[in-house]
Amino acid sequence: MALNSESAGKLTHVMADFEIKDLRVSVEGREILKGVSLAVNKGEVHAVMGPNGSGKSTLSHTLMGHPNYKVVGGQVLFKGKDILTLPTEERAKLGMFLALQYPVVVPGITMSNFLRTAINAKRGFDGKDKSKAISVKEFRALLKNEMSVLRMDDSFLSRYVNEGFSGGEKKRAEILQMAVLKPEMAILDETDSGLDIDSIKFVSDAVNKMRGPELGVLIITHYTRVLKFIKPDYVHVLVNGEFVRSGGPELADWLEAKGYSEWVKEPAKAPAALEAK
Amino acid sequence: MATVIPRIDVGDNYKEKYGFFDPEKFVFKAKRGLNPEVVKEISWMKNEPEWMTKFRLRALQIWDKKELPTWGADLSPIDFQNIYYYLKSTEKQGKTWEDVPADIKNTFDRLGVPQAERKFLAGVAAQYESEVVYHSLHKELESKGVIFTDTDSALRDYPDLFKEYFGTIIPPGDNKLAALNSAVWSGGSFIYVPKGVKVEIPLQAYFRINAENMGQFERTLIICDEDSFVHYIEGCTAPIYTTDSLHSAVVEIIVKRGARCRYTTVQNWSTNVYNLVTKRAVAYGDATMEWVDGNLGSQITMKYPSIYLMEPGAKGDVLSVAFAGKGQHQDAGGKAVHVAPNTSSNIVSKSISKNGGRTSYRGLVKVYPGAKNSKSFVRCDALLLDEQSRSDTYPTTEVDEPQVRIGHEATVSKVSDEQLFYLQSRGITRAEAETMIVNGFIEPFTKELPIEYAVELNRLIQLEMIGSVG
Fold first, then answer.
1. Fewest beta carbons within 10 Å, which of A50, A92, B42, B138?
2. Distance from CA of A257 to the nearest CA of B (A)
3. For residues B439 and A106, what is the distance between their CA atoms, to the nearest angstrom?
């Protein structure tokens, strides 16, 4: 599956910053990802698009180490490590981030407490060496800045994690977490779903502001809408657990016009011509 | 900003912080076991009036006749004849910490009691074994007529007030353990808040058992006169011994018209302590009684703080948290008895079971005929952390008045993989994520505590969570 590395503009023998190699994953004994390869470099934004059931969420959850997804083959290399052997929190500490499609409610824990605990965890604060913990002042300043971009007010911080949040608030909260944790490899899983047009704009502005040479982004989405706001450098089409096509941003426009009908109708007979780009 | 989860090291467990013991020293120790001679000796040591000696002996007779409860936790392992019922460690009670014998002062220092007193308390009592060894109260409150003393001194110094209320809310015949306490009681707090006086800063008592096979039987009596307010907090710990100790307190509270009393407990006995406590309050017209009851420690706890709503407008709240780890059974709950119309009660119980621990909610809501327009709501939430742990609810509702609103809700939940994954995906370890979820679960309880106690409680939960893993 060298085609993806090629599409990412890299030669296969040059190691990318984040590299998925022939990843195969099963859920409850059924193989969902059937050998997926993809290379993402810092500074790049890749979009993975696909119809329902193509394995998009399996990909995002596997990359972050969700226990329900069983890796049956392949590697994911990041900073010289195969992260598939690391527990979820170690992946996060290494610089990975996943914005969930369905952020989880944690009753009784305030956003502020959650964010601070996460920041401190990433800084390696072990409860003893106070110099590693973020100071109240620094924490406030950091949040104030990022929250204004996302148009979130202070009351947000005293609410319990995702409890009673609207769809838009949940997604903004995810991006806020990304902004304060400053990952080097971010996976945005259906971040546009359930968003009204204002929220999609605020969220996109925030992500675009974070784009730069220190961040690689993988946007996972069913629809092309979000890609109008966050312009991808590369687009990959995932169907039935395999990448069937990769290309530049124009592929998203093509998909918007044609949809996934070509592959979804007869996924077993995807023409070779399409796969080869 | 709400609760911050302080972080501590694995291995910094109960034993180190609370489970230490000091060499046993005493000026008087009763013989092991329970009989009329021991009871008379306690009364004699305390130089009590004759009526109290008789009260004790009569209670002992009731104790002999009554059976232990057959419901609830298993009390059969307790050998009541193997317990020391009275141990006096020092001759005098300190008004300053300097007056307290050095080793005992050292104990309370380690437990952080004097520090807390300096920072945020209006008065402190410290009980060590059977007797209160230290007592203080802000001068300003004293001048307003507030009485905060140990119960033995109250019997001596305020005999009329004492006799008017003592044993009226929980008579010795109420249950076998109330009879036991009535026979051998020692120490505890006596509080009187005069009409209209609001004690804005909490009063605290700290109960410490140090000796092995010790029985602690404090007796607390709180009288809130009309339109007054007080918040009383108690904490308790003990060393870890291989043999059992017994803590069996009786707490009686009278909340008069328009007054409000809040009674907060953070129980953290070591897991060799049987904690069998009877707590009851009566609330009169428009009065409010609030029990805020946290149970983390002990081998077995049986405790059901009760409120009798005696006159219209009376209100009662019970908010309780129980945490049961390995080998622990927390059988706790609350009772609300609606005697008068337009009374309301609210019972919220949160329990957490881990490592095979068992929690039970046991509660009673009773509405007497004529208690029209009464409202009662009971909510029990249980969180199970693994497959071996257990949680049960035993709610009883007896309503003899049709015109009432009664509600009951119960939930049992587990820490979900999705919650853990979410928190871990932000760099938080699994153990820490579990602790966070548990602390979040009891947040409705924690937020009712003064901030210092909230932090301490979260820390204790963290100890329980990490200690049992490491």
1. B138
2. 35
3. 10
In a domain, B275, yes or no: yes
Domain extent for B288? 14-303+415-423
Q: Is residue A140 part of a domain?
A: no
CATH number of the CATH domain containing A235: 3.40.50.300
Measured CA to CA, the distance from residue B363 to residue B378 in angstroms comes to: 9
Q: Which member of B3, B421, B439 has the closest CB to residue A88?
A: B421
Evaluate whether residue A159 is within a structural domain: no
**Calpha distance B273→B247 (Å, rounded):** 7
Cα dihedral: A112, A115, A117, A122 (round 10):
-160
Q: What is the largest CA-CA distance in chain B?
A: 69
Q: How confident is the model at residue A13 (pLDDT cuts 50, 70, 90)?
A: low
pLDDT of residue B91: 82
Q: Which two tokens stand for residue A20?
A: 């998925």
Mutate to test the interface with A, among B4, B424, B449 (most CBs of A within 10 A): B424
Do B425 and A112 lie within an 8 Å CB cutoff?
A: no
Q: How far apart are CA B368 and CA B340, in angstroms?
A: 8
- Cα separation, A139 vs A137, in Å, equals 5
**What is the β-pairing status of strands A70-78 and A81-82?**
antiparallel
Average pLDDT on A151-161 reads 94
* Chain centroid offset of residue B179 CA: 18
Distance CA B275, CA B73 (A): 11
Whether B363 is in a domain gets the answer no
Question: Residue A259: which domain range?
Answer: 3-109+183-275
Sequence-distant (6+) residues with CB within 8 A of A140 are: none
Q: Is residue B233 part of a domain?
A: yes
Q: On the CB side of B39, how many CA atoms lie within 13 Å of its CA? A: 22
**Domain count across chain A:** 1
Q: For an interface test with B, which of A89, A90, A101, A105 has the most B Cβ atoms less than 10 Å from its Cβ?
A: A89
Q: Which residues partner with B376 through β-bridges?
A: B345, B406
DSSP state, residue B401: -
Residue B61 neighbours by CB distance under 10 Å: 13
Contact B320, B352 (CB under 8 A): no
pLDDT tens for B214-262 read: 999 999 999 999 999 999 999 988 888 878 899 999 999 999 999 999 9
Instruction: Show the tokens assigned to B117.
Output: 């007193």
Interval B288-315: pLDDT, tens: 999 999 998 899 999 999 999 999 999 9
Q: Which strands form A30-40's sheet, in the order they lie side by side?
A: A30-40, A18-27, A70-78, A81-82
User: What is the count of structural domains for chain B?
Assistant: 1
Number of other CB atoms surrounding residue B288 within 10 Å: 20
Please indicate, yes or no, if residue B333 is contained in any of the structural domains.
no
Instruction: Report whether A51 contacts A263 (CB < 8 A).
Output: yes
Per-residue tokens: B132: 């209160």
DSSP strand pairing (B219-224 vs B250-255) = parallel
Residue A90 token pair? 């170690």
Encoded amino acid at B337, one letter = V
DSSP string, B358-371: EEEEEEEEEE-TT-
Contacts of B3 in chain A (CB under 8 A): 110, 113
Q: Is residue A69 assigned to a domain?
A: yes
